[in-house]
């Protein structure tokens, strides 16, 4: 059975239509996950209090760090699978699945055990308020128990996307989100005969939702006899292949570090914003809520471009790789640009979702948006070019470009220009950083040696 008949080939057909259709479930999944987090925050914040919300916010910083590294490894596995599918090499794809599954199980177990034991130490180093500390410990310990299921669910979703299937992960992501939202009040308040678990109940809902959804998705894949499933004769692939293992680590860690680099830059930025008082912080917080949704098309298109390019690299269709890059840039400019125009047209109304009409921060938030939101078009362009470059295995240049744009341009500009421009220096650092990121990504795409990169040595195939 060949890959083209078992999975979705992204090496043929109209690129624009295929890219949009493939990215839509990814985009919808990103929106669902954001809404899930917001709904859970409402349950915790409104009914368990500010200390509980502070506890989950701090605990989620630790969780984000761990998921960033796992995301990078998952992306490496996804690209490897995509290249194998493009080359119509199902055997290699199954070897990747086996080796990466073993790797994920090992990492998940180590993180779960180590994190559970080290919870007090980690929270102590976050300098949390004393009233939130025991709540965070209760929440985080359950989250660490949920970690293997969260890692596993993320891993299977990314592997399926690498094989050209974005629909199946989305269906089971919907199941996970619905379960998480529905189970939160049941476990928090002890409804339907369940014990009242308080803040630990919110984490328990996440555990159950991910465990059930992961089990259901794996069962579905075996029921459908998916070509990437490991049948009895394929269990030998669970013994890690050294070449694949090295590729997962060497290529995955830099991709995970990109998320960490971005999150650390935002932490430094909020520290700068804090200097200007509560009104400015509130204005920035409201504006950044909108930015999350403006950036979602960029991340979704970037993920779709990465998979499409990886399959075409595997198939040797370099003509399509070039067109995928150009079409991807066009799509991201159109989608992100449309959202930017909507924000400009309804700036006050959109911010009014987060700030009351009489808030002193409302006008300032409008001012921030006027300066910042158009820059996300450039950021989206950088994501697309970087996704194409990474699809061959060139993972270090996109990381370096991001470090330069954020840590050598955006952060220094915000700091150096503060005396002259005050808070406006912070807002203008966003367009400058995004423009530099797009410029560097486009330049490396045009003149870099990424076409010669390899995810895995040819002999290992």
Automatic annotation (TrEMBL):
InterPro entries: MATE_fam (IPR002528), MdtK-like (IPR048279), Membrane_Transporter-Flippase (IPR052031)
Localization annotation: Cell inner membrane
Alphabetized UniProt keyword annotations: Cell membrane, Membrane, Transmembrane, Transmembrane helix, Transport
CDD domains: MATE_yoeA_like
Membrane topology: Multi-pass membrane protein
GO cellular component: plasma membrane
Alphabetized GO MF terms: antiporter activity; xenobiotic transmembrane transporter activity
Alphabetical list of Pfam families matching this protein: MatE
Main location class: membrane
Membrane spanning residue stretches: 61-85, 97-119, 139-158, 170-193, 199-223, 255-273, 293-313, 325-346, 366-388, 395-413, 425-445
Protein name: MATE family efflux transporter
Native species: Tahibacter soli
Upper lineage: Bacteria, Pseudomonadati, Pseudomonadota, Gammaproteobacteria, Lysobacterales
């Amino acid at each position: 059975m060949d890959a083209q008949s078992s999975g979705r080939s992204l090496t043929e057909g109209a690129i624009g239509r295929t890219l949009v259709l493939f990215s839509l479930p990814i985009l919808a999944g990103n929106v669902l996950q954001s809404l899930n987090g917001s709904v859970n925050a409402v349950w915790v914040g409104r009914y368990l209090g500010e200390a509980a919300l502070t506890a989950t916010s701090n605990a989620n910083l630790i969780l984000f760090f761990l998921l960033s590294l796992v995301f990078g490894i998952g992306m490496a596995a996804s690209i490897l699978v995509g290249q194998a599918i493009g080359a119509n090499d199902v055997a290699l794809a199954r070897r990747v699945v086996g080796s990466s599954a073993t790797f994920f199980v090992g990492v998940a177990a180590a993180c779960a055990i180590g994190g559970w034991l080290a919870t007090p130490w980690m929270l102590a180093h976050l300098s949390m308020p004393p009233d939130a500390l025991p709540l965070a410990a209760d929440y985080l310990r359950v989250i660490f128990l949920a970690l293997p299921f969260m890692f596993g669910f993320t891993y299977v979703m990314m592997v399926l996307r690498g094989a050209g299937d974005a629909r199946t992960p989305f269906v089971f992501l919907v199941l996970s989100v619905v379960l998480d939202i529905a189970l939160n009040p049941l476990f928090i308040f002890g409804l339907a005969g369940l014990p009242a678990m308080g803040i630990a109940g919110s984490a328990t809902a996440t555990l159950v939702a991910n465990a059930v959804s992961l089990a259901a998705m794996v069962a579905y894949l075996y029921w459908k006899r998916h070509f990437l499933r490991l049948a009895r004769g394929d269990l030998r692939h669970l013994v890690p292949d050294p070449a694949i293992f090295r590729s997962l680590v060497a290529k995955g860690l830099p991709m995970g570090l990109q998320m960490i680099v971005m999150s650390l830059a935002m932490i430094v930025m909020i520290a700068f914003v804090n200097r200007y008082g509560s009104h400015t912080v509130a204005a920035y917080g409201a504006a950044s809520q909108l930015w999350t949704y403006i950036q979602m098309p960029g991340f979704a298109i970037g993920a779709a471009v990465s998979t499409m390019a990886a399959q075409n690299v595997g198939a040797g269709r370099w003509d399509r790789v070039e067109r995928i890059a150009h079409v991807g840039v066009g799509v991201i400019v159109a989608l992100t640009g449309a959202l930017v125009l909507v924000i400009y047209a309804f700036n006050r109304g959109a911010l009014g979702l987060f700030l009351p009409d009489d808030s002193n921060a409302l006008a300032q938030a409008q001012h921030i948006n006027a300066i910042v939101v158009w820059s996300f078009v450039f950021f989206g362009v950088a994501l697309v070019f970087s996704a194409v470059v990474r699809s061959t295995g060139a993972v270090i240049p996109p990381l370096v470009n991001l470090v330069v744009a954020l840590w050598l341009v955006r952060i220094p500009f915000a700091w150096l220009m503060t005396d002259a421009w005050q808070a406006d220096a912070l807002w203008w650092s966003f367009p400058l950083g995004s423009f530099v990121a797009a410029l560097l990504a486009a330049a490396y795409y045009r003149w870099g040696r990424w076409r010669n990169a390899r995810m895995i040595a040819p002999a290992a195939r």
